[in-house]
């Protein structure tokens, strides 16, 4: 099914409405993995002005991103608003910074609770941006890949969910208008940006054809053939969250983008072995790009 998320949002076409059961009569919805609910905090007062939800794997990195953003925009950074140890949530003006852990199962929980959070807060169309790290496929380390779409581990452009024993496939489109705007900002800021497909693997080692895992029942040549095949299909990086992220945000009708820096070129190796300073500089690149875009859009 083809659809443009931005148009869907504006026109309400194909956008799935929030589930009627969680918003039912007693209205006591509790966001278990965030550790708070509608009757434990005033969600509209705290989150009602949200315009952007920025997300990515590591809790430490997202605390840092929130602090950097606050410093740059000269606005306060909240304390960690999460009341559970699963995820951290920081807020800087209209931007929420929430980590999602590793892989689609963890991300899916964070997204569902974030969508419910936005719903309870009365936020109509938040923009979701994933800022992550990835393995490059034929691009040099440090490249920031702004994804054109997400591909699953079977190389299909869908997110596969198993529900009630049945396989459900959903589209993994991302917002082209948002992508183009982000790329333009990257160019302006002299950040090395590429666009291309992102492959979402189900694990870090065998699922990404690494040779440095504990198990490996394929040959080095198989790895290179696979990476070359991915590259020929337009894939520029591999991570572990893009299909779920693209599919959930599209289904909800929220504009979204995936902006991941590559930590290595998988054509040259498997081990992520970069000096700490270099790692920090790479981690800063998606942040610099996304922050410049958000500041341009919001005027803060
Ligand atoms: N994240 C991944 O999933 N793969 C990499 O190679 C690097 C980061």
TrEMBL record:
GO terms for cellular component: cytosol. One of its GO terms (molecular function) is uridine phosphorylase activity. Transmembrane segments: none annotated. GO terms for biological process: nucleotide catabolic process; uridine catabolic process. Residues 51-295 form the Nucleoside phosphorylase domain. The lineage of its organism: Eukaryota, Metazoa, Ecdysozoa, Nematoda, Chromadorea. It comes from Caenorhabditis tropicalis. Phosphate binds at residues 86, 130-133. Belongs to the PNP/UDP phosphorylase family. InterPro entries: Nucleoside_phosphorylase_d, Nucleoside_phosphorylase_sf, Uridine_phosphorylase_euk. Substrate binds at residues 208, 210. This is PNP_UDP_1 domain-containing protein.
